[in-house]
Design brief:
Layout lengths: L2 E5 L2 E4 L4 E8 L6 E8 L6 E6 L5 E3 L7 E6 L4 E6 L8 E9 L7 E2 L3 E6 L1
Parallel strand pairs: 2-11
Antiparallel strand pairs: 1-3, 3-8, 4-5, 4-9, 5-6, 7-8, 9-10, 9-11
Length: 118
């Protein structure tokens, strides 16, 4: 049974930082691709930090240089370090996973709200 629990959101002023966490159970990182997405009100969900086919991480252009994805394997936890936050980063952030042979992400965390104030 796959379960993703994401957390770490909150309210922060522009220029501040947050670290989101995604605790995964029922999966192994060797068998799944995992990444971070976000969705702002009235906007489509977008990939924030997702694995490329070559194993590297594809960051959305708007967050390159500011966001960093990482893993703590001992805790089976995925992180998204968000620095230099901007108001346009305000969104609900989701951890997501898919099996290696799937084209779309089918497992999702419940979402954690990130609000960045000017």
């Amino acid at each position: 049974q796959v379960q993703l629990v994401d957390s770490g959101g909150g309210s922060v002023q522009a220029g501040g930082s947050l670290r989101l966490s995604c605790a995964a159970s029922g999966i192994t990182y060797r068998s799944y691709c995992m990444g971070w997405f976000r969705q702002a009100p009235g906007k489509e969900r977008e990939g924030v930090a997702t694995p490329d086919s070559d194993g590297s991480t594809n960051y959305a252009y708007s967050v390159k240089g500011r966001f960093t994805i990482s893993k703590e394997n001992a805790k089976n936890t995925l992180y998204l370090q968000m620095n230099s936050l901007k108001p346009e980063d305000t969104a609900i952030y989701y951890c997501a996973a898919r099996r290696l042979w799937q084209r779309s992400y089918s497992y999702w965390g419940q979402g954690t709200q990130v609000t960045v104030s000017s």
